[in-house]
Design a protein that fits this description.
197 residues; 9 helices
Length: 197
């Protein structure tokens, strides 16, 4: 039980680090009042530019990766997936910004990178291809979230990884509910426009 508590606490406080908010604040901007108000890579990119967006993307990936790595070091495969789930939830409910946050895509990608590098690569290809074709980051993210558990399954990854990431992917899709509504209404912003999704 002590190991579990340690894993959960470490993963939560790592996952809760609001890098998008911090990067924007460093430049004198409250990212939560700009664009979509989201602290993730896409909104930071659109509001502050690609360089700031990449910094946020890398940092969010890293916190997901480190959470899973630490969880694995303490509790093995079960620890890795528990830590990954906690980190993704923490990213969306960060104690540092009044329990608000992003949608968990980049943080979740970092978790997958640790759990299965090949699955991560296939997910990146899927995300990039769909986003390039549709010019909607949200469509790329949702499509990848749908396919990710199946990719892990067909790569014969541990069942706890498949089920755990599957639950996270459902959660990520749920967090994209506003985007789905805008897509249905034809008001979702495409990549290249100044306003965020």
């Amino acid at each position: 039980m002590l190991k579990l508590i340690i894993v959960v606490l470490i993963a939560y406080f790592l996952g809760a680090l609001p890098f998008g908010y911090l990067v924007a604040r460093f430049q004198g901007i409250d990212i939560m009042t700009k664009g979509s108000g989201n602290i993730g890579f896409t909104n930071v990119w659109r509001v502050l530019g690609i360089k700031s967006g990449i910094v946020v993307l890398v940092c969010d990936l890293l916190k997901g990766y480190l959470s899973a790595m630490i969880g694995f070091a303490i509790m093995g495969e079960n620890g890795a997936i528990i830590a990954g789930i906690v980190a993704i939830l923490a990213h969306t409910f960060s104690i540092f910004i009044k329990f608000k946050g992003g949608k968990g895509v980049a943080c979740g990608a970092g978790v997958i990178l640790y759990l299965s590098p090949l699955a991560f690569l296939l997910c990146v290809i899927c995300l990039s291809t769909v986003t390039m074709i549709t010019r909607y980051m949200s469509v790329g993210s949702i499509t990848t979230a749908v396919l990710c558990p199946f990719i892990l399954f067909f790569l014969n990854e541990p069942i706890q990884y498949v089920l755990g990431i599957g639950c996270c992917c459902l959660y990520v899709i749920y967090k994209h509910k506003p985007n789905i509504i805008r897509l249905m209404n034809g008001t979702e912003n495409k990549i290249g426009k100044s306003k965020s999704n």
